[in-house]
Amino acid sequence: MTKTRKSRPRAIDAEKSGVEAKLQEVLRELQQKTRLGYELEKVVWLPGRKVLNPEGRPLAAEVKGNTVFVYDEHDPVFTLKHEFFEFLLNQDKMPLLDLLARLLAQIVYEQYKRSERLADVLAKHF
Length: 126
Prior knowledge:
Number of domains: 2
Largest sheet: 3 strands, mixed
Radius of gyration: 24 Å
Helix content: 55-70%
Oligomer: single chain
Strand content: 5-15%
Order of helices and strands: HEEEHH
Distance between the termini: 78 Å
Strand order of the largest sheet: 1-3-2
Number of strands: 3
């Protein structure tokens, strides 16, 4: 017995394809105008998809890898533009955060080595 999967109406698929094509076009225009953001290669429109941020608030869009996922069904073009510029703005923070993480790891390691040496000295004398 084979199960038949409910398929979406063709009109919905056509609308989704049309919106995604428009969003892809907007992404290329943004990249050409700014000469930035070429890491972003694809836009996927998932209207009405409920995706939450770590604080439990709904996301209108997000970048995963080289893809922009747009969940907003009301103004996906504005949402894509917002996400594109947020992506560009946050890129400058990543090297700094990476540097801080490595620096913190080094400090923690140095503190560990000091405490080990001190524990050895105390163990020998008591």
